[in-house]
Amino acid sequence: MHPQDRLLFAEALIAFAGDARDLTVRQQRAWELADQLLTDADIPKEALVMQVDEEWSGPLD
User: Could you tell me the end-to-end alpha-carbon distance of the chain, in angstroms, rounded to an integer?
Assistant: First the structure.
């Protein structure tokens, strides 16, 4: 999987999870999965927005 795809998943999970102060069980799981994706990619949560390439739409074939 391309690193930008991992970031896209993390970004989507965080958007779904919403406010970290008031979470449902599914939203909490989304935060956990996003954390794991970022950890696996060795990207600190604080750096997520700096790493995302807004132009990324998939690998060029």
Answer: 14
